[in-house]
Amino acid sequence: MTQKQTVVIIGGGPAGLTAAWELMKDGGADAYDVTVLEATREFGGISRTVKHNGNRMDIGGHRFFSKDDRIMQWWRDTLPLQGAPSYDDRKLGRHHDLEPGGPDPETCDEVMLKRHRVSRIYWNRHFFDYPISLSPNTLKAMGPKLTLEAGFSYLKSMVHKLPEDNLENFYINRFGRKLYSMFFEGYTEKLWGRHPSQISADWGAQRVKGLSITEVLKNAFLKLLPKKQDSSKVETSLIEEFWYPKYGPGQLWETVERNCERAGVRVITDANVVQVRQEGGRIESVVYEDCEGNRTELKADQFISSMPVKDLVNALGAGEGAAQVPADMSEIANGLPYRDFVTVGLLVKHLKLRNTTDIPTLGNPPIVPDCWIYVQDPGYKVGRLQIFNNWSPYLVKDVDDTVWIGLEYFCEEGDSFWSMSDEEARDFAIQELTRMRVINGPQDVIDSHRERVKKAYPAYFDTYSRMDELVEYLDSFGNLYCVGRNGQHRYNNMDHSMATAMEAVGNIKTGKTSKKNVWSVNTEQSYHESK
Fold this sequence. Notes:
- The protein is of the alpha/beta class.
- The protein folds into three domains: 5-45 and 253-335 and 464-527, FAD/NAD(P)-binding domain (3-Layer(bba) Sandwich); 132-223, Orthogonal Bundle (protoporphyrinogen ix oxidase, domain 3), CATH 1.10.3110; 338-458, Polyamine Oxidase, Chain A, domain 2, CATH 3.90.660.
- It is 33% helix and 21% strand.
- The chain has helices at 14-24, 69-78, 87-92, 136-159, 167-175, 177-183, 185-192, 201-207, 213-224, 249-262, 309-316, 327-335, 388-391, 422-435, 467-475, 484-487, 494-510, 516-519, and strands at residues 5-10, 32-37, 49-52, 55-58, 112-116, 119-123, 126-129, 241-245, 266-268, 272-279, 282-289, 295-299, 302-305, 338-348, 372-375, 384-387, 403-411, 445-458, 480-482.
- It has a seven-stranded mixed β-sheet with strand order 7-6-15-16-17-14-18. It has a five-stranded parallel β-sheet with strand order 9-2-1-13-19, covered by helices on one side.
- The longest helix is centred in the first third of the chain and has 24 residues, at 136-159.
- The chain is globular, with a radius of gyration of 23 Å.
- The two termini are 46 Å apart.
- Residues 231-238 and 524-531 have low confidence and may be disordered.
């Protein structure tokens, strides 16, 4: 009988838990001894579901959609698709392509809902389609003068291309200077705390990929045709249907964690990795600290890390007798920037916004149908509003008579907004919603919750331009695999993070030494949103 390979996985988010399950499924316990170290007591990382007084918050909003068929099947194997109408489907007379033999969301919790995406932009007290489209509503909200300006500006951008050496030029080349200044410039600076001219075009290339006015027009035209489009051929930013766990994204990761434990994975929570010990070009062990400050060393054959690259490199050089991390690698790692994130949840009696779309919604009076509302208007600090009622009616305790909203704020850990008290953050959020004419004022608010998220967004400036040097250094440790959003310092979607873990596990199983496949997820053409 061959000896089992021991594998330590750092992080219980999408990448870490995907790696654990990929190793252990189909009898993997005979070949692998797997331990997951999670620094908190919750699973899913920024894909967790936050519970507050019977209501649930999805941090950042997570659509379950991927162009990678392996991942769509993986999700479906974890939580089966609905086979009967959900609460809001029934009340609104909505019909989806229900899954034959699938569970009934009204009687079963372990179920994936089919959802219709509506996202719009709020600018100058008007709603615009998201992504920007040339619909009659858009033209009406902009008025004839702005429409002509935007049109001529776009035509100019088609002829006169700017060098794509920063994010500003990337957007102008695709949308024209006028639309860029209206809908991208202020919002991008709000999100990153830097002007788009200071940010690498890589970020835009990754997040909007094939999206442009041309794609928007093509998509609008195809919608007029009777044949239903194959969603795998549509730009991801334009996808209008997605799957969603009944109780939010965290429900899926909590289910995966339970499945892993049942399959034999040892999961340790409150395990903050503080040292990574190396010898002879390989990782020997990790040392983690529990909530009482006790330290434990774990040796293993293979290590999969989804902890932030900055923390990983610092842990490699930490502790007595630690091998010295080269000064230039330490400099790159510690210069990698992040944006942090605060969500303020407000439970309100009703919205002032009226549903002027033809999409039926719950509520009395009916609420707007949006999952997200992007606040591109530079007059407000809030970046996006989430209306949790529309993600899943089961996220809201009293979905017929209350509206559960999340206001998303981008900030730096320790800055004035991050450091506000819960009450100050709540009052600030109420004030902004009132000014936006979304609610009448504090009298409409029943309850609130503030959630802070560190290192939510790996950022593409400062030492990021030297990331390839750091990748080469980390890859020199033959038994270390960096996966996930923070593990690769890449603004991955959840499915991309999962794919990095699948590639890493594939390498461990086959003995493949090059890690190019692990790092090239979400950069290769096969992963691009435009096929």
